Amino acid sequence: MERTEKLQLGGVFKLECFNKHGDLQWEGDLYNAVVSEGLIDILGVTFGESEKRTWYLGLHTSMPTGIADIQGLTADDIGEKIAEFVNYEGSERPAYEGELVTGNSVRWSNASNAAEFKITLADNATVTVNGSFICSYEDKGAPDKSDPDAEKEVLLAIARFDTETGGRVVRNEDILRVTYVFTAGS
Fold it and tell me: Is the distance from CB of 93 to CB of 58 less than 8 angstroms?
Protein backbone atom coordinates (compact mmCIF):
# COMPACT_ATOMS: atom_id res chain seq x y z
CA MET A 1 0.00 0.00 0.00
CA GLU A 2 1.39 3.36 -1.01
CA ARG A 3 1.25 6.10 1.57
CA THR A 4 0.33 9.48 0.09
CA GLU A 5 0.09 11.72 3.15
CA LYS A 6 3.07 13.85 4.16
CA LEU A 7 3.66 16.35 6.90
CA GLN A 8 4.00 19.76 5.31
CA LEU A 9 5.49 22.76 7.06
CA GLY A 10 5.56 26.27 5.68
CA GLY A 11 4.82 29.84 6.37
CA VAL A 12 3.84 33.20 4.98
CA PHE A 13 5.15 36.61 5.96
CA LYS A 14 2.62 39.37 5.35
CA LEU A 15 4.19 42.82 5.11
CA GLU A 16 2.07 45.98 5.22
CA CYS A 17 3.61 49.44 4.92
CA PHE A 18 1.79 52.49 6.30
CA ASN A 19 2.97 56.07 5.92
CA LYS A 20 3.25 58.42 8.91
CA HIS A 21 -0.42 59.38 8.42
CA GLY A 22 -1.56 55.74 8.68
CA ASP A 23 -2.36 55.28 4.97
CA LEU A 24 -1.56 51.86 3.50
CA GLN A 25 1.24 52.30 0.92
CA TRP A 26 1.73 48.68 -0.12
CA GLU A 27 1.36 45.12 1.10
CA GLY A 28 2.70 41.75 0.07
CA ASP A 29 2.67 38.08 1.01
CA LEU A 30 6.02 36.29 1.00
CA TYR A 31 6.03 32.49 1.07
CA ASN A 32 9.02 31.36 3.06
CA ALA A 33 11.66 28.70 2.91
CA VAL A 34 12.08 26.91 6.23
CA VAL A 35 15.85 26.52 6.22
CA SER A 36 17.62 23.31 7.26
CA GLU A 37 18.77 24.88 10.54
CA GLY A 38 15.10 25.67 11.34
CA LEU A 39 13.90 22.17 10.46
CA ILE A 40 16.60 20.63 12.66
CA ASP A 41 15.50 22.87 15.52
CA ILE A 42 11.81 21.95 15.05
CA LEU A 43 12.68 18.24 15.20
CA GLY A 44 15.03 18.81 18.16
CA VAL A 45 12.35 20.57 20.19
CA THR A 46 9.74 17.96 19.25
CA PHE A 47 11.90 14.98 20.16
CA GLY A 48 13.67 16.46 23.19
CA GLU A 49 17.09 17.52 21.86
CA SER A 50 16.53 21.29 21.96
CA GLU A 51 14.87 23.80 24.23
CA LYS A 52 11.89 25.84 23.07
CA ARG A 53 13.04 29.25 21.80
CA THR A 54 11.78 32.81 21.71
CA TRP A 55 11.55 34.04 18.11
CA TYR A 56 12.17 37.50 16.63
CA LEU A 57 11.27 39.04 13.27
CA GLY A 58 13.75 40.85 11.06
CA LEU A 59 13.86 42.58 7.67
CA HIS A 60 16.43 42.25 4.91
CA THR A 61 17.50 44.09 1.77
CA SER A 62 19.05 41.04 0.06
CA MET A 63 19.61 37.31 0.46
CA PRO A 64 20.87 34.42 -1.68
CA THR A 65 18.54 33.25 -4.45
CA GLY A 66 19.44 29.62 -5.15
CA ILE A 67 17.39 26.92 -3.36
CA ALA A 68 20.48 25.11 -2.05
CA ASP A 69 21.96 28.43 -0.85
CA ILE A 70 18.73 29.35 0.93
CA GLN A 71 18.37 25.93 2.60
CA GLY A 72 21.91 26.22 3.95
CA LEU A 73 21.44 29.64 5.56
CA THR A 74 22.00 29.96 9.32
CA ALA A 75 21.68 32.70 11.93
CA ASP A 76 25.42 33.31 11.47
CA ASP A 77 24.72 34.43 7.87
CA ILE A 78 22.78 37.50 9.04
CA GLY A 79 24.97 40.44 8.13
CA GLU A 80 27.03 38.37 5.66
CA LYS A 81 24.87 36.47 3.15
CA ILE A 82 21.70 38.13 4.45
CA ALA A 83 21.84 41.95 4.37
CA GLU A 84 19.69 42.89 7.35
CA PHE A 85 17.76 46.16 7.28
CA VAL A 86 18.26 47.74 10.71
CA ASN A 87 17.04 51.34 10.26
CA TYR A 88 14.05 51.15 12.57
CA GLU A 89 13.45 52.23 16.16
CA GLY A 90 15.03 50.19 18.93
CA SER A 91 18.21 48.17 19.24
CA GLU A 92 16.42 44.82 19.12
CA ARG A 93 14.22 42.96 16.69
CA PRO A 94 10.55 42.79 17.62
CA ALA A 95 9.49 39.58 19.34
CA TYR A 96 7.25 37.16 17.47
CA GLU A 97 4.21 36.77 19.72
CA GLY A 98 2.19 34.04 18.04
CA GLU A 99 -0.69 31.89 19.15
CA LEU A 100 -2.22 28.60 18.05
CA VAL A 101 -5.01 28.79 15.45
CA THR A 102 -6.80 25.60 14.41
CA GLY A 103 -9.09 24.79 11.49
CA ASN A 104 -8.39 22.88 8.27
CA SER A 105 -4.71 23.13 9.20
CA VAL A 106 -2.82 23.91 12.37
CA ARG A 107 -1.27 27.38 12.35
CA TRP A 108 0.85 29.47 14.65
CA SER A 109 0.20 33.15 13.93
CA ASN A 110 0.90 36.61 15.28
CA ALA A 111 -1.99 38.12 13.27
CA SER A 112 -3.57 39.47 16.47
CA ASN A 113 -0.24 41.00 17.54
CA ALA A 114 1.73 41.87 14.39
CA ALA A 115 5.29 43.13 14.81
CA GLU A 116 5.81 46.77 13.90
CA PHE A 117 8.97 48.40 12.57
CA LYS A 118 9.02 52.23 12.69
CA ILE A 119 11.44 53.21 9.93
CA THR A 120 14.19 55.72 10.79
CA LEU A 121 15.91 57.24 7.74
CA ALA A 122 16.99 60.73 6.72
CA ASP A 123 13.94 62.82 5.74
CA ASN A 124 13.99 62.22 1.97
CA ALA A 125 15.83 58.89 1.95
CA THR A 126 14.29 55.63 0.78
CA VAL A 127 15.41 52.02 1.11
CA THR A 128 14.15 48.93 -0.68
CA VAL A 129 13.17 46.12 1.69
CA ASN A 130 13.31 42.74 -0.04
CA GLY A 131 11.86 40.46 2.61
CA SER A 132 11.66 39.17 6.14
CA PHE A 133 13.02 36.43 8.37
CA ILE A 134 12.41 34.85 11.77
CA CYS A 135 15.27 33.88 14.06
CA SER A 136 16.02 33.25 17.73
CA TYR A 137 18.48 36.14 18.11
CA GLU A 138 17.03 39.33 19.58
CA ASP A 139 19.76 41.86 18.76
CA LYS A 140 19.98 43.38 15.29
CA GLY A 141 22.83 41.92 13.22
CA ALA A 142 24.62 38.58 13.38
CA PRO A 143 25.02 36.73 16.68
CA ASP A 144 28.22 37.66 18.49
CA LYS A 145 30.52 34.72 17.86
CA SER A 146 32.46 35.50 21.05
CA ASP A 147 29.23 35.04 23.02
CA PRO A 148 29.08 31.45 24.37
CA ASP A 149 25.33 31.31 23.62
CA ALA A 150 25.73 32.49 20.01
CA GLU A 151 26.11 29.00 18.57
CA LYS A 152 22.64 28.20 19.91
CA GLU A 153 20.92 30.87 17.79
CA VAL A 154 18.74 29.64 14.91
CA LEU A 155 17.39 31.06 11.67
CA LEU A 156 13.98 29.41 11.28
CA ALA A 157 12.73 30.81 7.98
CA ILE A 158 13.36 33.54 5.43
CA ALA A 159 11.43 34.93 2.46
CA ARG A 160 11.77 37.59 -0.22
CA PHE A 161 9.55 39.35 -2.69
CA ASP A 162 9.53 37.58 -6.05
CA THR A 163 12.23 38.58 -8.50
CA GLU A 164 9.71 39.91 -11.07
CA THR A 165 8.26 42.61 -8.82
CA GLY A 166 11.32 43.10 -6.61
CA GLY A 167 11.41 44.66 -3.16
CA ARG A 168 9.31 47.46 -1.77
CA VAL A 169 10.36 51.01 -0.88
CA VAL A 170 10.13 52.36 2.69
CA ARG A 171 10.56 55.97 3.83
CA ASN A 172 11.32 57.74 7.08
CA GLU A 173 8.52 57.35 9.65
CA ASP A 174 6.79 54.56 7.68
CA ILE A 175 5.45 51.74 9.83
CA LEU A 176 6.12 48.28 8.44
CA ARG A 177 3.77 45.73 10.02
CA VAL A 178 4.86 42.08 9.76
CA THR A 179 2.65 39.08 10.38
CA TYR A 180 4.03 35.54 10.19
CA VAL A 181 1.78 32.49 9.91
CA PHE A 182 3.48 29.11 10.26
CA THR A 183 1.34 26.18 9.08
CA ALA A 184 1.59 22.43 9.61
CA GLY A 185 -0.69 20.02 7.80
CA SER A 186 -0.83 16.59 6.25
Answer: yes
